[in-house]
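Trying the structure run again after the queue cleared.
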Amino acid sequence: MNANTTIKGALLAFCIIGMLVLPAAAAGQATTTGQASAIDQGLKDDLWASHHTYRLQEFDSHVAQANNVIGILGKYSIDTTQMQATLTTISGERAALDTALTNKDQAGLKTINAALVADWKQFAQETRDAVKAHYTAARAAARAARTSAAGTSGATTSPDVIPTSSAAAV
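Done. Tokens:
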């Protein structure tokens, strides 16, 4: 999961919420300056409903992508235990996200989004750490195998050297 994608998604969510707040702020300012301004509540409701649907689809898409990453890494015997635990935590936030969107709770959305950004960063770091640990262990095993083979054979042959029995056959 790319951290930039997560950050872009969160930024887009904040922009959409900002678009919803600006008309209300402008209406409040117009009222204080003596100008009457009517805000179409149907428009606000439609925008919130659209944002609600989009945000939950985006959340589900990110979770599905993370599950795919875990599946792929598992296929290559990379330990995904920590990543799975973090993804479970992230998935548990969906209900709170849905509730905040349903209630149009901007403070709650801000809190949930901040927690999700931190959790996705943790997931990305755990993914990098798991892959690094896997390949560090594989390199160490390969080094140990080479050292063991060199120690038992006594001498190693270069792949550029043609054995004399093969040269006589040519």
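Residues 3-145 form one domain. Worth checking whether this holds up in the mutant runs.
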